[in-house]
Amino acid sequence: MRIGTALTLTAALFVARTTGADDAWDQATYPDDNFSGPNTLLHGTVQTHDLESHANADVDYFKVPVRAHESYEARMFGSTVIFQPPPPPCQAGVCARLERVDLNGFPLQQSQKVEGDYATTAVRWTPAATAVEFLRVTGPDVATTYDQYSITFLNTTLFAPRFNNSATQTTVLFVQNVTSATATGTLDFWSAGGTLLRSEPFTIAARGVIVVNSAALPGLAGQAGSISVSHDAGYAGLTGKAVAVEPATGLAFDTAIAPLPR
Predict the structure, then answer these.
(1) How far apart are CA 6 and CA 144, in angstroms?
(2) Is beta strand 131-138 parallel, antiparallel or unpaired with respect to 148-155?
(3) Helices vs strands, H then E, count in the chain
(4) Which residues contact 75 (CB under 8 A, 6 or more apart)?
(5) What's the CATH fold of domain 158-259?
(6) 157-187, pLDDT tens digit by residue?
(7) How many other CB atoms are found less than 10 A from the CB of residue 233?
(8) Which long-range contacts (CB under 8 A, 24 or more apart) does 129-132 make?
(9) Which part of the chain has CATH 2.60.120.380?
(10) pLDDT of residue 9
(11) How far apart are CA 185 and CA 156, in angstroms?
(12) How, if at all, do strands 97-101 and 117-125 pair?
């Protein structure tokens, strides 16, 4: 390659890398402002990015691997900017946005503020299928390198390794909503071999609790296995236990319904 050509390519690369935001991901070999970048968030991952804008607003993309019958949360916090939608709605280009998007960049779901804080926002969902999905953060039109945010991705599903409605035992579930908002979700009952036996939707009022006799649900009498609980209450928004009761002896065996550790 001739020296003049090499210098031209180097200059073009330099310009391309300095017209966007200046955090480590934007300046790396594979920047995070397009779908082709390798930046992936896994359960418990925390990343910090800036939203510095030059000619255009900064855009950050994240890949997130998800599984069917499990629930997830992407939460942004520690931000120096306001996220949509506060009341009144942000004007275009003034606030930042966190969205779940499809392969074409079409918005599927916009985040909502968490516990009334406009600088903390989250997207919560249960995917329809096992796949790699995408999150997008769009900054305001005018921002500096000091305008930053941290993002974390969490599997919010609760798991119980045991329920037993066979022989003389019956399992009763207690699920508590510890948040200040109504929570909805699904109880999935699995056989010991991993076959889905039943999916049971539920709704729990703010700070409420539900009690479910699993043996009374269609298809679960005489069955045993495990339980997973997908929901929209966010990580640690629900808690509970599965209690296997033996009426003949009065003995009870508690199994915690708990999320994956962070």
Answers:
(1) 32
(2) unpaired
(3) 1, 17
(4) 114, 120, 121, 122, 151, 152, 154, 234, 235
(5) Hypothetical Protein Tm1070; Chain: A (2.60.290)
(6) 999 999 999 888 999 999 999 999 999 999 9
(7) 25
(8) 129/68, 130/66, 130/67, 130/68, 131/65, 131/66, 132/63, 132/64, 132/65, 132/66
(9) 40-155
(10) 35
(11) 11
(12) unpaired
Q: Could you tell me the CA-to-CA distances from 23 to 32, 78, 93, 150, 177 in Å, in that order?
A: 10, 16, 20, 12, 38
d(CA 19, CA 31): 12
The Cα 250–Cα 78 span in angstroms is: 50
The runs of H, that is alpha helices, within 113-238 are none
- Integer-rounded Cα radius of gyration of the chain: 23
Q: How far apart are CA 127 and CA 146, in angstroms?
A: 34
pLDDT of residue 171: 97
Yes or no: say if 42 and 111 are a contact pair by the CB < 8 Å rule. Answer: no
